Amino acid sequence: MKIASIFEKKKPVLSFEIYPPKTETPLEDIVVVLNGLSALRPDFISVTFGAAGSAQSNRTSDIAALIKRKYRIESMAHLTCINHGRAEMAALLQSMRAEGIENILALRGDRAQDPAPKTDFAYAADLVGFIMASGGFSVSAACYPERHPETRDRTQAIRHLKQK
């Protein structure tokens, strides 16, 4: 189910956001959290992407799929583009599609010094376009209402979008 359809019902929407456990923590530990959250009957649960594209990111789709499969609650997987090239992103999307994940929150992600960011996607808007072109996903995004702190001027990102 596309999350947009939940909002069309014009009722209060309850959602939660969870973080994947660190890689050394068994994935089963998140089940305790999900058991508690599912009892509250949320409309959906979003799952963050690992910080700066870390190894936690590999767990995002696993947890989002678990939420759908075991708890029958819609999930939204966060996806950041700053540390992924087009081929890696295509593989992530294919994996998510295979797991039945339909909803993605597209984000640029935080810059980290190591590894150096990849340059295939300069902005989250580039990722949104890439996901939309792959088809089958409902894509959400977040933005700064004024301007991103790293943007030189207010119209830089708008000019970038118009060039597309």
Could you explain how this protein is built, in words?
This protein has 164 residues and is α/β, with parallel strands linked by helices. It has 6 helices and 5 strands; from the N terminus they run αβαβαβαβαβα. It has a 5-stranded parallel β-sheet. It is globular, with a radius of gyration of 16 Å. The model has no long low-confidence stretch (mean pLDDT 85).
What's the main sheet like?
5 strands, parallel
- Rg, Å, rounded: 16 Å
Task: Return the structural class.
Answer: alpha/beta
Spans with pLDDT under 50 lasting ≥5 residues?
Answer: none
The side-by-side strand order for the widest beta sheet comes to 1-2-3-4-5
Task: Considering the chains and any ligands shown, give keywords for the structure.
164 residues, single chain, 6 helices, five-stranded parallel beta sheet, 5 strands, 15% strand, globular, alpha/beta
Topology:
Elements: H1 3-8, E1 15-18, H2 29-38, E2 44-47, H3 57-71, E3 74-80, H4 86-98, E4 103-107, H5 124-134, E5 138-141, H6 156-163
What does this entry show, briefly?
This protein has helices spanning about 5-10, 30-40, 55-70, 85-100, 125-135, 155-164; strands at about 15-20, 45, 75-80, 105, 140. The chain is α/β, with parallel strands linked by helices.
